[in-house]
């Protein structure tokens, strides 16, 4: 995974164009194969030197990875959900710039046990919107998932995402009304 992390950092630093990225990604994946969920997480998580907003080069890179079959719709949406800035709106401490420790099932336990809080984006809404359009496009094309398990994973992560969005909307509406 460290090779992939260095590769991603170099691609972003050098502003690698999609055509060259396509050439490199085939080579990197053949020499250092990873499951789609790990590839998606590496590209969609906050970078060591940037947790404010994802780099604009990320969506074209994800599209290229999708075309090669190195990431799929469920892995993209799972990574988007995991690192979404919406989580910070549910945790007042996170709004002060601290890292959020809430991650559905296990976040509260992690925070209580003293583990290091999860690092999330501070502003990821634009990336989430672009990636949702990409996932919708792959669904229309019929390439979003390969089997029924992936379809179930997609439904599961979408329901978690809808729950998160509903919670944040309810919280915002409650604050607006008072």
Report what the structure shows.
This protein has 178 residues and is mainly alpha-helical. It has one domain (2-85, 121-177). The chain has ten helices and no strands. It is globular and about 55 Å long. Residues 93-111 have low confidence and may be disordered.
Note the main sheet. none
Strand content: under 5%
Mean pLDDT across the residues is 85
Query: End-to-end distance, in Å?
Result: 47 Å
CA radius of gyration: 17 Å
Specify the overall morphology.
Answer: globular
Tally of distinct domains:
1
Order of helices and strands: HHHHHHHHHH
Alpha plus pi helix count? 10
Uncertain segments are 93-111
Supply database-style keywords.
178 residues; mainly alpha; 0% strand
Explain briefly what this protein structure is:
With 178 residues, the chain is an all-alpha fold.
What's the structural blueprint in terms of helices and strands?
Blueprint: H1 2-14, H2 18-31, H3 36-44, H4 58-68, H5 73-82, H6 86-90, H7 92-95, H8 104-113, H9 125-141, H10 148-177
Helix pairs in contact: 2-4, 3-5, 4-9, 5-9, 5-10
């Amino acid at each position: 995974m460290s090779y992939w992390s260095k590769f991603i950092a170099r691609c972003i630093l050098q502003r690698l164009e999609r055509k060259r990225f396509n050439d490199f990604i085939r080579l990197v994946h053949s020499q250092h194969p990873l499951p789609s969920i790990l590839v998606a997480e590496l590209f969609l998580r906050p970078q060591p030197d940037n947790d404010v907003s994802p780099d604009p080069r990320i969506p074209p890179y994800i599209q290229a990875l999708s075309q090669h079959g190195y990431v799929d719709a469920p892995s993209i949406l799972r990574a988007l959900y995991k690192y979404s800035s919406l989580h910070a709106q549910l945790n007042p401490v996170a709004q002060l710039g601290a890292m959020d420790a809430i991650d559905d099932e296990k976040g509260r336990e992690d925070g209580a046990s003293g583990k290091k809080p999860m690092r999330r984006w501070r502003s990821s809404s634009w990336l989430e919107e672009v990636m949702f359009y990409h996932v919708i496009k792959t669904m229309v094309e019929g390439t979003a998932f390969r089997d029924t398990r992936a379809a179930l994973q997609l439904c599961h992560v979408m329901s978690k995402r809808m729950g998160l969005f509903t919670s944040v909307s309810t919280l915002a509406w409650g604050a607006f009304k008072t």
